[in-house]
Specification:
The protein is of the alpha+beta class. The strands form 5 sheets. Strands 6, 11, 12, 14 and 15 form a 5-stranded antiparallel sheet that branches. Strands 13-5-4-16 form a 4-stranded mixed sheet. Strand 1, helix 2 and strand 2 form a beta-alpha-beta unit. Helix 2 packs parallel to helix 4. The termini are close together. About 40% of the residues are buried.
């Protein structure tokens, strides 16, 4: 199956549907766009021993209800001293990858977050204004993402990207996230909720902690393919792939897709 972009209008539709299939016979015809709305990435630094972190999760849920889950894409990065590694007694969500980001961004307190990597470390009350600000901007890169779960257990990924106005040089990052994880979480009243449901939890990076370099030319589609095998303790029905492109000016576009079964 070939994944391709059609005329720009169809490419925009593909951005919204994420996993639409495009017939092999259809060819890409570039038409210069008048502007494409962009999605916003929230990197939520959190931990299971952080009593205020459920408040951040509630704010993400509110923003997604207001703007749409396809427009506000969140990734919860369990990291730092308030996060918990899994052991024989506790289901922990902390990862070495999360700690890499925690150290790189010099996170000093949780919850805190990055909004499109443009505004520095932001506290939860700042998120709504920054999300709104970034959503008013036009995307400089178009992204489409297709993910297939194979019978072999592998997941195949195809990412279509295109520069919309100017040539683009930056990086493409792919992450695996998981929803609906029941695991302990300290609550604002100081109690421990052992049945707390964690969503958009960062599980792994598919192409390294900082992604792969990409060079995009206006009017020329780029297609890249990846694959990964989910860990045994991940629920494949709750997995998603988050793909985003960024440069020294921050995240320029982000998309998210669940996994479709192999046809």
């Amino acid at each position: 199956m070939r994944w391709s972009l059609l005329a720009y209008s169809l490419f925009t539709a593909l951005l919204l549907s994420a996993c639409s299939q495009i017939d092999e016979s259809e060819r890409f015809i570039y038409v210069e766009p008048s502007g494409v709305a962009r999605a916003v990435l929230i990197e939520d630094f959190t931990g299971q021993r952080c009593i205020n972190c459920p408040t951040a999760a509630s704010e993400i849920e509110r923003l997604q209800k207001e703007y749409g889950e396809e427009n506000v894409i969140a990734v919860s990065i369990h990291s730092g001293p308030l996060a918990v590694f899994s052991n024989e007694k506790v289901k922990g969500l902390r990862t070495e990858l999360g700690d890499t980001y925690y150290s790189h961004w010099n996170i000093e307190s949780e919850p805190s977050g990055l909004i499109d990597r443009k505004h520095g470390i932001a506290l939860v009350p700042q998120w709504a204004g920054l999300v709104y600000e970034d959503m008013q901007q036009q995307a400089s890169v178009g992204l489409a993402l297709a993910c297939s779960a194979l019978a072999s257990g592998e997941v195949e990924i195809k990412v279509n990207s295109i520069a919309l106005k100017n040539d683009f040089r930056g990086w493409l990052q792919l992450w695996v996230t998981e929803d609906n994880i029941v695991a302990p979480q300290m609550m604002p009243d100081g109690s421990m909720n052992n049945e707390y449901v964690h969503n958009h939890v960062l599980r792994a990076a598919i192409n390294g902690a900082w992604g792969d370099e990409v060079n995009l030319t206006v009017g020329s589609e780029t297609v890249v393919e990846y694959s990964f095998r989910p860990e045994k303790d991940w629920n494949i029905d709750n997995l998603s792939v988050v793909a985003f492109v960024y440069d020294d000016n921050g995240v320029q576009q982000v998309v998210r897709s669940g996994l479709l079964p192999e046809e």
